[in-house]
Amino acid sequence: MRLSVGSWPGLKGSSVLQVCHPDWRGVRAAAYGFGDPVVETKDAGRSAMHIVHNARSAGVKTIVVQGFPPGAANLLRTARRAGLATRCLLHSSPAQHGAEGGEAEVVEQVLALAAEGAVGVVGFVKKGLAEMFNALGYEARWVPNRMPTLPGLIRVSPQGRQPHIGVMAEPFWRKNVVTQLGAVAILEGTAHVMRRPDVGYLAQLPIIEHGTLGWEQFVGLLGSMDLNLYTTLSECQPLTPMESYLAAVPCLFSRTSVLFEDSPELLGISTLAEVDNPAAIAKAARRLLANADEVIPLAQSWMANFDKVAAKRWMAFSRD
Question: Is the pTM of this model over 0.70?
Answer without folding.
Answer: yes
